[in-house]
Amino acid sequence: MEDKGVLVAPSVLSADFTRLGQELDDIATADYVHYDVMDGHFVPNLSFGPGILRAVKGATQVPVDVHLMVSNPDEVVPQYLDAGADMVSFHLEATAHANRVVQAIHAAGAKAAVAICPATPVCMLEDLLDDVDMVLLMSVNPGFGGQSFIPGTLRKLRQLQGLLAAHGVAPLLEVDGGISAMNAAQVVEAGADVLVAGSAVFGKEDRTAAVEAIRSEGLRGLARRRTQA
Ligand code: DX5
Ligand code: ZN
């Protein structure tokens, strides 16, 4: 299967909001800015909405990957597309009309991704795999930064790779939650292309170095994956 290198997506949920512009400058070498939207309903926490996304888009050249942890993605997706989202991830658990949400995102010229929580099996994704640009596997229960990586995610990554091979498609695989330079290699070795990291970037004094440390560990994992292929 085609591999796409290792992409790093710092989650600004863990940034210092009083100096968000500087924080964005410090992660200018990242591949995506990961923007976590929490509605206090799908998840027990609130974060930020389309207004702050517009400000983020005005302050960085890095494409923004919007992760919607909301119970009504069908209704709110247009606001995030209007605000400039480059990629939108919505939760499969939150909508009965996932295919329609993907179509709405693509119609606006953005990339579409479907996300699943740790307890949702990857087989639930099967009929969307031909249509999405990325699959987001949550490796913590969504709602908060700074949680521990759930190890069963590695098995799900391997299962998902099998499903993708069977369908002959290769969307990006993003893993979100509890990622750091300590586990980036094994997560990429198991199949991840995009690593989201919040506290492991913004909890460090030097954010730029933290991004590069995660990327270089990820590349070590990619080298191991290539030798197995
Ligand atoms: C969790 C969010 C994550 C979170 C990651 O609900 O979707 O993107 O910000 O934070 P860390 O990397 O600290 O687990
Ligand atoms: Zn996220």
Keywords:
TIM Barrel; single chain; 8-stranded parallel β-sheet; globular; 229 residues
What's the CATH H-level homologous superfamily?
Answer: Aldolase class I
Morphology call: globular
Please report the distance between the alpha carbons of the first and last residues.
9 Å
Number of domains: 1
Helical run tally = 8
The strand count comes to 8
CATH top level class name: Alpha Beta
Q: Share of helix among residues?
A: 25-40%
Average pLDDT: 97
Secondary-structure blueprint of this entry?
Blueprint: E1 7-10, H1 20-26, E2 33-38, H2 50-59, E3 64-69, H3 73-82, E4 87-91, H4 98-107, E5 111-116, E6 134-138, H5 153-167, E7 172-176, H6 184-189, E8 194-197, H7 199-202, H8 207-228
Parallel strand pairs: 1-8, 2-3, 3-4, 4-5, 5-6, 6-7, 7-8
Helix pairs in contact: 3-4
Residues 11, 34, 36, 67, 176, 196 line the site of zinc ion.
Written description of the protein model:
The chain is globular. Strand 4 (87-91), helix 4 (98-107) and strand 5 form a beta-alpha-beta unit. The chain contains eight helices and eight strands. The longest helix is centred in the C-terminal third of the chain and has 22 residues, at 207-228. It is of the alpha/beta class and 229 residues long. Helix 3 packs parallel to helix 4. The protein has one domain (7-228): Aldolase class I (TIM Barrel, Alpha-Beta Barrel), CATH 3.20.20.70.
Short recap of the structure:
The protein has 229 residues and is of the alpha/beta class.
